Amino acid sequence: MESPNSPFQVQAPSKSRLMKSVLAALVIAAVVLVLVVLPAEYSIDPTGVGKVLGLTQMRQGSNKTIELKDSLGGNEKISTAQIPDAGKPIPLPNPAVFQGAKEPAKSQTLTITLPPNGETEVKAVMTTNKVILYSWKTDSGLVYVDFHGHSPDWTNKQAFVRYLEAQDGLAADSGSLVAPFSGEHGWYWVNIEDHPIKITLTVSGYYDAIKNYGAL
Amino acid sequence: MKSGGGERQVMTVLALVVTLVCGNLAAAHGVSGGDAAFVAANRGVNIVPFMYLGAKHMVTGYDHLLFLAGVIFFLYRLKDVGLYVTLFAIGHSATLLLGVLTRLHANAYIVDAIIGLSVVYKAFENLGGFQRIGWKLDSRIAVLLFGLAHGFGLATKLQELSLSPEGLAANLVSFNIGVELGQLAALSIILLAFTFWRRSQTFLRGAWNANVLIMAAGFVLMGYQLTGYFRSL
């Protein structure tokens, strides 16, 4: 059994003293919260004291805001952001909009030759919110393409997202992707011509690796 | 002699108030701006920087410090200080490592409100409140449990940044070692201040008031975080 450490535990305080003290703590906390912390942190200022003390302006900066419609990734409830004062950047509500990196983006070009009816997959392994730019074309004719992403353990089929599908085939395509989740994001191609097709793909950006599954 | 004691008492109270009001409330328990960018951009094992971040987190995390101040308030023997701090560290480490590695998510506001509650709890315990109302939970178990909450708070914050899986485990362990080092540094200073203060004759009276203030600070933290939570809904 532990021994009591506090002298107030050895001799318990009277009920009224304890009650008064807890009440005092609550009152102090309420006063500090309402007059100082809430105005400064959230610009919630029911008494107006925060404004007098100049606390409410701490979170305001410039009063100009911009609407961020469908910000990248679309996973944020906030749709407006304050325009920061010069020299005072504030983080955008969606971290995917700007991301610094320690290293320059990678870039890779690869070619795959598909026989008639041949199929293959090339995937960029990416973490959430990372960006790639891509561009591919065939040397002759059309390929069926399915541009999609899934988590590494996608057998549970819970994270499979299709970005683009061209059932009639495409000869070339370009675009960008912000990874909506960590996993493999890339292309499934089928040669729908009756002659071999060479596909040349260039991917640039902040991917971790490119997986070329070869002819399937 | 007496006035000296009173002065120290005032200083302690002032220190508490200054920590609360002027401390960078926004950066309190999270990882602040530039550091967040570093963590997000980092690839691979980076032992010393992560250790530094852990230590910085602990030394500048007033919610942890308030709780620890409450924990060691009446611990006179170094052996007891060691025991309680170890229990807290075990709790803190377990949830920090497990939380991030198993990707357990929780609402940061709620976890931080629970940390505020831990401060209130500890102050109430120091005031002999549980003796009065006849409720008994071994304070060692309470420290361990709240240690779990504190670690989980940080795990949640760290996961909001996109941590690279490269070298994650090693970086987390480094971070955690940094947390313990920072805790040791902060505790030494708090302990030193308490040792001086306890020599003064006004300690007992001041101790009561200080714990009431710690409790008030805990309520402020709870109110701050719960307001944030309801605003985020």
Write the layout of secondary structure elements.
The complex is a heterodimer of chains A (216) and B (233).
Chain A: H1 7-10, H2 15-42, H3 49-52, E1 65-67, E2 80-82, E3 106-114, E4 119-126, E5 131-138, E6 143-150, E7 160-170, E8 172-178, E9 183-191, E10 197-205, E11 209-215
Antiparallel strand pairs in A: 1-2, 3-10, 4-9, 4-11, 5-8, 5-10, 6-7, 6-9
Chain B: H1 2-22, H2 33-41, H3 47-60, H4 62-72, H5 78-101, H6 108-126, H7 129-133, H8 139-160, H9 168-199, H10 203-232
Helix pairs in contact in B: 1-9, 1-10, 3-9, 4-6, 4-9, 4-10, 5-8, 5-9, 6-8, 6-10
Would you mind describing this structure in some detail?
By secondary structure, chain A is of the alpha+beta class. Chain A is built from three helices and eleven strands; from the N terminus they run H-H-H-E-E-E-E-E-E-E-E-E-E-E. Chain A has helices at 7-10, 15-42, 49-52; strands at 65-67, 80-82, 106-114, 119-126, 131-138, 143-150, 160-170, 172-178, 183-191, 197-205, 209-215. In chain A, the strands form three sheets. In chain A, strands 7-6-9-4-11 form a five-stranded antiparallel β-sheet, with no helix packed on it. Chain A has a four-stranded antiparallel β-sheet with strand order 3-10-5-8, with no helix packed on it. Chain A starts with 6 loop residues before the first helix and ends with a strand. Chain B has 233 residues and is an all-alpha fold. In chain B, helix 1 packs parallel to helix 10 (203-232) and helix 6 packs antiparallel against helix 8 (139-160). The longest helix of chain B is centred in the last third of the chain and has 32 residues, at 168-199. Chain B is globular. Chain B starts with a helix and ends with a helix. The A-B interface holds A 2, 4-15, 18, 21-22, 24-26, 28-30, 32-33, 36-38, 40-42, 44, 91, 95, 99-103, 127-129 and B 20-21, 25-26, 33, 37, 40-43, 73-76, 80, 120, 123-132, 138-140, 162, 164-165, 204, 207-208, 212-213, 215-220, 222-224, 227-228, 231.
